[in-house]
Write a structure and sequence with these properties.
- This protein is α/β, with parallel strands linked by helices and 269 residues long.
- It folds into two domains: 6-200, Zn peptidases (Aminopeptidase, 3-Layer(aba) Sandwich), CATH 3.40.630; 217-269, no CATH class.
- The protein is built from nine helices and five strands.
- It has helices spanning 6-16, 34-49, 94-109, 136-141, 147-151, 162-169, 197-200, 239-254, 258-261; strands spanning 53-56, 62-66, 75-81, 118-123, 184-188.
- Strands 1-2-4-3-5 form a five-stranded mixed sheet, with helices on one face.
- Strand 3 (75-81), helix 3 and strand 4 (118-123) form a beta-alpha-beta unit.
- The radius of gyration is 24 Å and the shape is elongated.
- 28% of the residues are buried.
């Protein structure tokens, strides 16, 4: 029976948490920033030490591949991203990369037979904390975003474009290296939950059935200003009171009863 190495995995997590480390804990490792490039270089060194071939595509996504016994078999891919949000955690994103790397190291070190080529990958600019939108390069690969438009996106609060940062990173490769659905059998992305449900239900692992999709609305409620001391409540048109009713009504209509979802978290309500 084969198993990954807990101590080895812990070392990976601790080492990569140093790239972009903050004094008060956590990391800021924005896409294609110096800390992100350090993490990428470390990933490449470790993958190549295992005998993997490391290539990148035209938008900087990285692919580290160990061949299988069947040269015609489709690839099995494991990956995630190495960039973070500002003041992010040590596991978010990078865990999926390091879990794949640890699995690869186990297979290589223990000489586990495998027919399919095995690829561990890093997506570029998944968080979108430096260059909006999030999931930029995976979106380009899937045809959701136009590459030229994304290359022209300027960093938040600065003038550097994604294309300029990408060109300076040294990770611009060939478009033919992009993840192609015709060439891989399965894609896995291990991830931390970032929420309370598994812990509340005493579960160690879960399989994602869907991801959040965000739609934002701006709702403006205009009240009427009145003298604070002389206008009775029955005459007032209070915007905040109306907003509170709308919020409560939406929760009720959507069935979002927190006391049913997380009873322990609602003891103070």
């Amino acid at each position: 029976m084969y198993a990954t190495n807990k101590e080895r995995m812990t070392e990976k997590i601790m080492t990569f948490s140093k790239y972009g480390a903050l004094d008060d804990g956590g990391i800021t490792r924005l896409s294609l920033s110096p800390p992100a490039l350090e993490a990428r270089a470390a990933f490449k060194r470790r993958a190549e030490a295992l005998g993997a071939t490391v290539v990148s595509d035209d938008i900087g996504n990285i692919y580290a591949t160990v061949p299988g016994s069947d040269p015609d078999a489709k690839r099995i891919v494991v990956g995630s991203h190495a960039d973070s949000v500002r003041s992010g955690g040590n596991y978010d994103g990078i865990y999926g990369v390091l879990a794949g790397l640890e699995a690869l190291e186990t297979i290589v070190t223990d000489e586990i037979p495998h027919r399919h080529p095995l690829t561990v990958m890093i997506w570029t600019n998944e968080e979108g904390a430096r260059f909006e939108p999030a999931m930029m390069s995976s979106g380009i690969v899937l045809g959701k975003f136009e590459k030229e438009k994304m290359l022209a996106v300027k960093e938040t609060g600065g003038q550097t474009t994604f294309g300029e940062a990408l060109a300076a990173s040294g990770w611009v490769g060939d478009e033919k290296n992009r993840l192609n659905k015709e060439e891989y059998l399965a894609y896995f992305e291990p991830h931390i939950e970032q929420g309370p449900v598994l812990e509340e239900q005493n579960l160690e692992i879960g399989i994602v059935g869907g991801v959040v999709g965000m739609v934002n609305y701006d709702i403006i409620l205009d009240g009427v200003a009145s003298h604070a001391g002389t206008t009775p409540q029955t005459y007032r048109k209070d915007a905040l009171r109306a907003a509170s009713k709308i919020i409560t009504g939406l929760w009720e209509q959507l069935g979002l009863d927190r006391t049913e979802l997380l009873p322990q978290a609602c003891d103070d309500l």
